[in-house]
Amino acid sequence: MNILIEGAGAIGIALGASMISQNANVSFYASQRTADKLTEGIKRIGIFNHLSFSPDSYEVYTDYNDLPEDSFDFVFVCSKTVANDDISNNLNEHRNILKEGAKIIIFQNGFGNDEPYLRYFDKDEVFCARVITGFSRPERNISEVTVHTEPILLGSLQGADIEVLKPIAEMISKSGIPSEINENLDKFLWAKMLYNCALNPLGAILGVNYGKLTENDYSIAIMNKLIEEIFNVIKAAGYSTNWDKPEEYQDIFYSKLVPDTYNHFSSTYQDISKKQKTEIDSLNGMVIKLGEKYDVDVSVNKTIYNIIKSIEADF
After folding, report:
1. Quick check: 132 pLDDT over 90?
2. pLDDT in tens, 51-88
3. Residues 271 and 200: beta-carbon distance below 8 Å
4. Over the stretch 259-273, which tens digit does the pLDDT of each residue have?
């Protein structure tokens, strides 16, 4: 199996190491700075079993024109969501690198990230993943698995046959990180949206980990309102998730989900710390987009979104 990993960040390196451990042929598409560091090898460390591979275990590319033709069975999109337009355009313009029947799997935060790819590829070629495992990158060639609460889920938002994803889920699981295929991925992606939209931007704004956000009434009040607005959007837009009411979700959010990931600092926090653009448009920005479309009040999400955008304006 030949796999191209778009984006050699924390999750890209972790999944690349996972696939190499299961004898897949892995290629990374990376920035030049990251590509230079990958010449030292890659490591997956943290709460699951550790993996380490020398640079002769994989290929690294920085130019699409250098990618071999008719090579890849799967493309894992592990970049930040801000790169989706560029990646989808490049994959379309360089279709010759893909084998017949190749599949794209999007391992990103947010909802609707398949839309840029569906401009060029059929619905049975584009899939999504729900990743609620936490990753960080202490060095450019090292991924640390920091927290884990539920399996990585692979599926389709377009009703495509997901059995083709079963070998990938099995390989990720055998590498040490639990993974499954799921027919109701939209429900789980909205569950992750509830989690990320409540925690990611607020943790970044206040400069604290997830757990600290649950330790005073003021941040709890903000998160509760964010969650309530998202539930209203889910209902108005005709989607569903695993809870009928925001109170049901809040119970598990405060009793299990946040405690399980107490010490984690959000990807939004990490991006802002590095003065990088965040994925806020695919998170609270998507809630706002749907809220405006279906005439739902999302004023607290707008406020949080605008604060993050104000911080980004200086980057």
Report:
1. no
2. 999 999 999 999 999 999 999 999 999 999 999 999 99
3. no
4. 988 988 898 998 999
Dihedral angle, C-alpha 38, 155, 171, 68, nearest 10 °: -50
Break the chain into its structural domains and give their ranges: 2-183, 187-312
For 161-179, the DSSP string reads: -GGGGHHHHHHHHHTTS-E
Give residue-wise pLDDT tens across range 178-189. 999 999 999 999
Query: Has residue 147 got a pLDDT over 90?
Result: no
Architecture of the domain defined by 2-183: 3-Layer(aba) Sandwich (3.40)
Distance between CA atoms of residues 46 and 53, nearest Å: 16
Separation of alpha carbons 114 and 128, rounded Å: 7
Task: Tell me the residue type at 21.
Answer: S
pLDDT of residue 264: 85
Contacts of 214 (CB under 8 A, 6+ apart): 220, 223, 254, 258
- Residue 41 Ramachandran class (φ > 0 left, ψ -120 to 50 alpha, else beta): left
H-assigned helices in the chain: 10-21, 32-38, 84-93, 115-118, 166-174, 185-206, 217-236, 246-252, 258-260, 267-273, 284-293, 299-312
Q: Is the pLDDT of residue 213 over 90?
A: yes
Backbone angles phi, psi at 26, to 5 degrees: -115, 135
Strands 72-77 and 2-6: parallel
Integer Cα distance of 165 and 173 in angstroms = 13
Residues belonging to the chain:
315
| pLDDT value at 159 more than 90 | yes
What residues does 77 pair with on adjacent strands? 6, 106
* Domain 187-312 listed as CATH 2.60.120.10: no
Instruction: Tell me how far the alpha carbon of residue 284 is from its chain's centroid.
Output: 14
Name the β-bridge partners of 3: 26, 74
| Antiparallel, parallel or unpaired: β 51-53 and 59-61 | unpaired
